[in-house]
Amino acid sequence: FRGKQRLVPTPGQNEKYYLAGALNAGTGKVLYVGRHSKCSEIFIRLMEHLRKTYRKAKTITLIVDNYIIRKSKKTQAWLKQNPKFTLLFQPELLQRVRRFMEAASPFPGNQHGIAKMKQT
Length: 120
Fold this sequence. Notes:
3 helices; elongated
């Protein structure tokens, strides 16, 4: 009825799940990890995955934004024990990533291209 809010059944809890990923600029390969919280552990878990995947690499350089989990005490302690990693902090990284994603579709060697995400 007009002026009365309709009840809409939902399937359950609104569960959040976060992803952290890295793009190998040379090959186009994307590695990622997931977690139910956005904290230092998700970033450390990503770096551990990269370390295992690229064990023979002498250095691993990550271009990252200035989000607090990349500078936390926990992350800094992990980086101190894993000196092969270098973090390059870039301001306005999100804008640059969006421009890159729009220009890189399709990525060399990628058969599918990249669908543009709706910006919110």
